[in-house]
Amino acid sequence: MQKTLLVTSIAESTGKTAVTLALGQLAQERGRAVGYMKPKGTRLQSNVGKTLDQDPLLARELLDLDSEVHQMEPIVYSPTFIDGAIRGQEDPDELGAVVEERFAELAAGTDLMLVEGGGAWSTGGIVNLTDVDIAERLDADVLLVADYETASDLDDVLAAADSFGDRLDGILFNAVPDAAFDGLEQEVVPFLEGRGLPVFGVVPRERDLAGVTVTDLADELGGELLTEGDREAYVERFLVGAMGGDTALRYFRRTKNAAVITGGDRSEIIAAALEAPGVNAIILTGGHRPPGALLGEAESKGVPVLLVTGDTLSVIDRAETIVNTGRARDEATITRMGELLYDHADIDAILGDGSAKEASDGGGGTDSDSTAGDDTDDGSTAED
Q1: What is the pLDDT of residues 140-149, one digit of tens each?
Q2: pLDDT tens digits, 68-104
Q3: For residue 102, what are the contacts with CB-CB under 8 A and spacing of at least 6?
């Protein structure tokens, strides 16, 4: 019996790609014939729609598929595409028919079709192709991938679950920080399952799969390292230094594993960044070299300072692309995610043919009789 599983997410960069491809490999190990599709390409190189999306190429390689990229990713969801849709240049019914046609081509001869959502679950609404719409068109069951830090994150989970309705097979929490892990398992999972929403797993955060190192950033941005510092420190998010020094310091102190991006002539911002313990690197734009005293302070504190060309906004775009695409898109990362899913998720429930209600009756990914092995302290935050 063929199963179609749509892997969707609450937001971008929740590890959706790594989860999807790891599930494909795990299914193949069980003798399943697996296909892959990503109907909407959202990783773009330019507004006119040239795609940067490596997900279909990686899927073709890792799952040993002979599908063509235009089949696996029929719609490039670019700003130009969206503008055209608003002007009536795109027909939602025709686009939906194309997705269905490509899906039928790819699904032939498979018993498990993995369909990866693009961006967040609501992406595509402008042409009636949200992941809810795609699940209906392709008659797909749905796995919802979500991150979690505080209880307020459940509002988004519940809204998405309500939109998918009976098509929702279950929820997988990924990249859960240590501080939130126990509360999620002990309180939130029972709460959700009490509302009829199965939780198939809680995958903890793993630093080696989170963000990129300062060395990675320097190599990809083509910048000059002005100080040594800890080049192997991880950067997971970026802060823009565009305010006064005192305000910047309060802002910078509220985060961790961050890089501050600011103009090299903004000495007060650089000084504030050096006072914040969660700032692992400073990226200076515009080619401006800061005063030697600031570089000396950065050197003494072990904070790498990277000098790059280009304006702040363009550097932010480039840096975020590196973080969001680099760590989750190689064979080692997918293999590691497969191990984490085996340890922390109910693979039988995710890959099986049972409905969400049947899965709920059988329990979530933390039950002792699931395929998952013993929990460890490892985890993942591989980005989409």
Answers
A1: 999 999 999 8
A2: 988 999 998 888 889 999 999 999 999 999 999 999 9
A3: 37, 39, 70, 71, 72, 74
- Reported pTM: 0.72
- Amino acid at position 204, single letter: P
Kindly state the tokens that stand for 268.
């007060």
* Residue 61 CB contacts under 8 Å (≥ 6 apart), including other chains: 331
Strand spans (E) along the chain:
3-9, 34-37, 40-41, 75-76, 112-116, 141-146, 168-176, 199-204, 212-213, 224-225, 234-235, 237-240, 258-263, 279-285, 305-307
- Residue extents of the structural domains in the chain: 3-208+327-362, 212-324
Q: Which residue has the higher pLDDT, 127 or 50?
A: 127
pLDDT of residue 356: 38
- Indicate the CATH number of 212-324 among 3.20.20.60, 3.90.1150.10, 3.40.50.300, 3.40.1390.20: 3.40.1390.20
Going along 205-247, which residue ranges are E strands?
212-213, 224-225, 234-235, 237-240
- In angstroms, the CA 2 to CA 110 distance is 7
Q: Are residues 141 and 109 in contact, defined by beta-carbon separation less than 8 angstroms?
A: no
Thinking of the domain 3-208+327-362, which architecture would CATH place it in? 3-Layer(aba) Sandwich (3.40)
pLDDT of residue 328 exceeding 80: no
The amino acid present at 366, given as its one-letter code, is: T
